[in-house]
Write a structure and sequence with these properties.
Radius of gyration: 21 Å
Order of helices and strands: HHHHHHHHHHHHHHHHEE
Pfam family, one: MFS_1
CATH topology of the largest domain: Growth Hormone, Chain: A
Subcellular location: Cell membrane
Keywords: Antibiotic resistance, Cell membrane, Membrane, Transmembrane, Transmembrane helix, Transport
Protein name: DHA2 family efflux MFS transporter permease subunit
Shape: globular
InterPro entries: EmrB-like (IPR004638), MFS (IPR011701), MFS_dom (IPR020846), MFS_trans_sf (IPR036259)
Amino acid sequence: MPDVRLASPQGKWILLTTVLGSGMALLDSTVVNVALPRIGRDLGADLAALQWTVNAYMVTLAGLILLGGALGDRFGRRKVFVTGVLWFAAASLLCGLAPNAGMLIAARALQGVGGALLTPGSLALIQASFHADDRGRAVGLWSGFGGVGAAVGPFLGGWLVDGPGWRWVFLINVPLALLCAPIAVRHVPESSGGGAHGRFDVLGAALGALALALMTYALIEAGEGSVVVAVAGAAGLAAAVAFVHVERRGPDPMMPPDLFASRQFTAANLVTLCVYAAFGGFFFLAALQLQVVVGYSALAAGTALLPTTALMLLLSARSGELGDRIGPRLPLTVGPLLCAAGMLLMLRVGPGASYPADVLPALLVLGLGMVTLVAPLTATVLASVATARAGLASGTNNAAARAAGLVAVAALPLLTGMGPEAYREPDAFDDAFGRAMVLCAGVLVVGAAVAFATVRRPAAPDCRRPECRTHGSVAVPPLEAETGRGPDGGAAPRPPGTGRG
């Protein structure tokens, strides 16, 4: 049984290690978008290269994150976490030194592999290390500090881009990793899933990542209209079909199809696909819009986007409590509609836009919508499956959100008519941005309709509750770790509400 107390020196070291590790990945998800215009100018990259700068990371992360958690359970959570931290740092160094866009994109894909190893491990280390009486508070501190890191990310990214340069957006991960890894080796106890057995679903992970990569390529390059693009799109669909087949027939699938036998789980993931596709497209394009069209510096653009994260950080826990009282259907209907309204308000953000009168109101409405829906969405996912499978359900939902975001980043420029040089032409980009906001709002309305028609209050009163109550990330829903083990080695359900952020 884990017995480390939070107040002990070792407990504080463990908390610091996990915050540093997860903070690296959170920073990356929030700072890179702000740096894109400067990256494009310095490397002579077109819009497609900027899309790949975001999506190369997301393809490998989304495709491998479930496998990363399984590797930690089998070979040791600390070992895989430290490997992920060092891998992430090495790939970040390659990103910072990249001489051209092609090398940057390749390094970003490698960075996503490191993220898939360290992201599931940070929370799993807390679950496996701390005494049961302290675990809820440790999770709360971890998620709270992670939210602060997510809030600081855009500001820090803008300051780095305008100061020492965009390469430091990546290079800053190196000293963080050199601090994190030795602390983990020295102070974090090793742990593993004692009941782990069977083979790894390497084929499923490879097919999932391949399907995402090929379909993303087809969407980004569709404007070329070449045979290669058509073949890539067809191959991506074939890989997706093969992925489903392997998951249905494999002895140890990383994404068991019977999870989706729960109508509530399927409904929650459909809502997730809609809302996180819209969020992914919005945050990719909004950072460009503020710099290319409105004329903000990178620092000003990063700072301008802080209200959404701040609202999430301050109000997500209360939103979760409200969802517990009234059920998920109303929050998951109203939340996307508020987000859609916020994105339509962004239509006012053009040349000469005023931050207090035009930008801030849109971001506040968007942030309130995100606050309304994110915590109840996570709770719905966890409540729709058996308690022992809550961690797997959360990982599947997290991967679905990442996949939705990367598809949106790939598809929106195509659907709105953005050319390769659009981000260098303010008038053309402004027109396309307006069309993109209307499309994102439409997708959110579809998500609200799905929630209203399909989501219901969970029937089981003793279902798993989210442990990460405070949430600051605007890119993906929070990950939840697997349940603990009982004295007989079986899954031990936790009492409702044991973890509070």
